[in-house]
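sanity check this record:

:::
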Amino acid sequence: MMSADSGSAVLETKDDGPKIPDKKKTKFDVVIIGAGPSGYTAGIYCSRAGYDTLILSGVLPGGQLVNTTEVENYPGFENGIMGPDLMIDMRKQSQRMGTTIIDDEVVDVDFRRKPFKVLTASEEYEGRAVIIATGATPRKMGLEGEETFGGKGVSYCATCDGPFFRNQDIVVVGGGDSAIEEATFLTKFATTVHLVHRRDELRASKIMQERALHNEKIKFHWDSAVIDIKGDQKVQQAVLKNLKTNEETTLDIGGLFVAIGHNPNTELFKKQIELDDKGYVVLKNKTHTSIEGIFAAGDVHDREYRQAITAAAFGCMAAIDIDKYLTEDADK
């Protein structure tokens, strides 16, 4: 397979030194925007297939896993692995396959014609194909305690972190399908799940509401909001405020799950590709977007699973789809 540009993708400072990306190189077969599990996996597969591949990781590479502690449910790690360590290993593996990784933030794209253009503040890159792997960001309550106790009792994913809170009291914030689903799931582990909702009725679907309302482990706190999170090294208390009476209540808890939705990181692509009503990338066929040659992988289009392993799987799928696309494109 022919490379989009001649020359080495990286420069080596010395035989045993680190590889440093050659920022002068701007033309690639594949440009991947984002460096979470989907982006790194796509880089591994694209590079192994012989394509000259660039990952633009952004200023904080690694996706949501860099803000987590122990990951128990990613296959291959019997004793678990810290989220940041998993991302470092994925990054190194992608680089070992020949992927160029540049820690720069994409500020604009031009998908109107080929080769596609991806711009950072300092450079313009071209790709014969692009994978959008920018992920999604959990919505936050805006409390200082969220930042203080992120990965230390504050979580945004019950299926990821629920097993860490066995036999503890837990708070879940929210009233939609995601919150009810997370609260119900957490009853498998928790002693009591305190569901805190700003209104006096749930927004979740009726069948999910019924299951939650009849679950003896779920205690509802209506017309309420979490106003503070306290603890020593980890979450130990949540302070609730009733929005109608202004009464405050302090709960002794082991964890707090925020389930008020996610925002897909698609602001850059609003006028370029088709997005759904929530801003997620619309897939037309497998991992293909509305523009031929532009693909998407991971939480940027996945509204349902949002797991590291499913994001990685979508990265693999996008890379395989790109291989077919670029092979057919070369034969035209």
